[in-house]
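JOB MANIFEST
job_type = single_chain_structure
chain_count = 1
residues = 266
[input]
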Amino acid sequence: MKLIITKHNLGLWAASYIRTRWQARSKEPFVLGLPTGGTVVDMYAALVGLVKNGKMSFRNIVTFNMDEYVGLPPQHEQSYHYYMHQHLFSQVDAPSANIHILNGMAPDLHAECSLYEKAIEQAGGIDLFLGGVGRNGHLAFNEPGSAFNSRTRVMELTDSTRQANARFFGNNPALVPSQALTVGIGTVLQAKELLFLASGVSKAEAVARLAQGEITPSWPITALKTHSRAALLADPEAASALTGPAKAYWEQARAQHPDEDVILTL
């Protein structure tokens, strides 16, 4: 896999890459796995701009979101249904039938997860899965200790994840749902291509673990190294904990070409 360190806005970089992959698609539809969170707000704004300017269309794109809180109705302002509607789907030409988001209010949560896996399979698999990285290295809501072959399921959220997300719930961790539905790490790894984003110093340890540590379920982010077409896009702050050869290579490349992305093969 590749670690790409860039000075450019991560969201704009990712949106441009999505458009490039969409243009190069060899089949219909183009199937995207999508995340939520602050890191990708700019990405969605850029995608909306591309659609409004006629440079891209969601008519032939099928989307599958990574996760959803259990117990939050779609109209709740902190549900991921609401987030995606606000930031993307209400502003682009995406047919409602092509949009898939897990239902955290489903009467049978386990059946909901099984149906989600079947829907991904029926769509022909995910062509490009986008994602963010948690402070503890979680992918989607796959917390440390999650098996790399895990599939879409109900997940108990750790205290650290609830505390990190408390800023969206009036800074009160007790208001953050204790469970979520999430695609599994195995679900993510089955995608044909992966692009994950990490921004800010709070993600620096996770990025360093990916770049320099062993592959272990204790840091779910390290599962990306088992995929042949995976990339992690990081800003300089997220890369600030790199040490050893990785840091030396980054510093040398940055000194020689200060305005260019630095790409490390892991």
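[summary]
The chain has a mean pLDDT of 96.
The chain has eight helices and eleven strands.
exit_status = 0
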